[in-house]
Amino acid sequence: MVIRGVLFDFSGTLLRVEPTAHWLRAVLDEAGIALPGGESARLAAELEEAGALPGGASPRTVPAGLRELWRERDRSAERHRAAYTALARRVPLPRPELYDALYERHMRPEAWHPYPDTADVLDALRDRGVPVAVVSNIGWDLRPVFRAHGLDHRVDAYVLSFEHGLQKPEPGIFELACRALGVEPGEALMVGDSRHADGGAAALGCAVHLVDHLPRDRRPDGLRPVLDLVDRTG
Length: 234
Hints:
This protein is of the alpha/beta class. The protein is built from ten helices and seven strands. It folds into two domains: 5-16 and 111-233, Rossmann fold; 19-110, no CATH class. Helix 7 (143-148) links the parallel strand 4 (132-136) and strand 5 (157-160). It holds the Pfam family Hydrolase. InterPro entries: HAD-like_sf, HAD-SF_hydro_IA, HAD_sf.
């Protein structure tokens, strides 16, 4: 096959969300809340175990009453917010308004940081004439994040689950992305960090390349093999 278009996942693939402790500290600081001793670290650990940070660690367990909402969370903005704030509420915080503040914080550009090789790999694909789409299971508009980090001009299309009522691994979301790039599924490469979600593109005929969802300092060049795959098929 010849790769004529590349589809990228967002979180854990192109960008990484801030650590849970930073996420909580930013919200506490904005609220003017100072916690004693290791209280902030304890709450951050409990929020991480609950899976309350979108783009962060998955929940250790999902309560029975939330399981259906959790499975469908990426189909709409309302479900996404409801699912993650419900998980956060499993952790007692000093003020009730902090749960919504935490959710709002994770949508801000400063909560996200590109992997070290993201811009270079996207530039190299553009130089090769290979269009790029971002295909994300998400409940909010990530375009401002790409603009803030100077990446928006490197992306040709965004296919976001909440805007279409589709979520990976459903083939339809990958089909929309291929159509947006003007390529056939058999000419597309899906790059992501989830074998289950991103691997769903294979059912449509796309090639799939998986990367490790690691902290930025532990994955300085995890995207560069994408260029080798494109060059090998060109």
